[in-house]
Amino acid sequence: MLPDPSSPPARGGFAVVDVEATGRSPWRHRVVEVAVVLLDERLRPEGEFCTLLDPLGPVGPTHVHRIEQQDVEGAPRFREIAPRLLELLAGRVLVGHHVTCDQAFLDREFARIGVPMPPVPLLCTMRLARAHLPGARGFGLTACVEAAGLGGFAAHTALGDARATAGLLRHCLDAPSCPPGDWTDPLREAARVPWPRLGRARSRLSGEPVPLVTRDGARPAPVPAPRELSDRLPYGPRPPAAPPPAAAGKPAGAMGSTA
User: Which of the four, 120, 172, 191, 220, has the lowest number of CB atoms within 10 Å?
Assistant: First the structure.
């Protein structure tokens, strides 16, 4: 986890995102869970953020995302975590599996509170997989993770999907067929994008602190250690390898990534 939730992380690198929503339309439906896994410019983990959100209405297709109405009772509203989310995304390349879907939901949620989301550079692991995982049986997240040999993950949860997407990003960027410009150019562009800032929501009107609520009722676990990368990555020495972490959270369904 980020060592201090009140301190912004260092700018630069990648923000791997996944959202679960009450439906398929960013215009008509709301985000009900959001997760961000932060990677630095060398693809090393920096921290993660995850919370359920109160969509101010029905949670939608529970049979898909497996979030029950009672799960979001007491969860923050999007506007309450928006300042922190802006800090996490600022200066970074936005990464997701079918990332335009996650971006569209985030864009609409920020628009609802009057905050325009800037035109941030994107990296889509689904597109990367099509180019660098030719043996995949499909290009949903589960099939891509399987083809990359990354092991199991908590599929169809925001944090589980974001972690798996981060691993898939490392795998694809380390492929010999992936030219360095595919990620170095977006990193340079992201560093130049101006981001809005919001005052932090420190408490609710009742005086209670703004909570973060996860599916298991606990704070997110630490970011998994990166897979060993080859020396061809242009960011210096490769990070040490580490055993894969255990899957986090309860198994659940997703509206964000295609699994």
Answer: 191
